[in-house]
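Annex B. Sample input.
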Amino acid sequence: TSQRSPCLGRGLQNLGNTCYINAVLQALAALPELSSALRAARPSTHDGRTELWGCMGDVLRELSDDRARGPVSPWKLKSAVGRSKPQYNSFGQQDAHEFFLALVGSLHDELRDSIDGDEGKAALGLLSSQLDNHLTCKDCNEHHKVR
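Annex B, continued. Sample output.
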């Protein structure tokens, strides 16, 4: 896409061994369609079931705020992820890919259970995925979809 991401002006604060969080957040913030859809989606509940969505939206808004200075703290987002995924409560080194899967999966679940309107459906569609496995025989080159 030729659309420039609005979220590339500011960096993220390293809270101590949290570069894996920052790498994932910066990658997600660099996707204009996802950033816009997440900021536009309005969850229908405010009872704590959409806490992670709110924290993610806050980080994206702060990253795109051209008037603000200094790095954005991902502390609230890290805490929200840690409440549902305890392995992220510590400040130990973690794998960025595993954090990405945990974050996107949790965001998907929150939005699926609480969205209203087309904006929320658009965000949900961007967070959805499907993995297909295929096997190919090296001898006969026959392809099989694995279920």
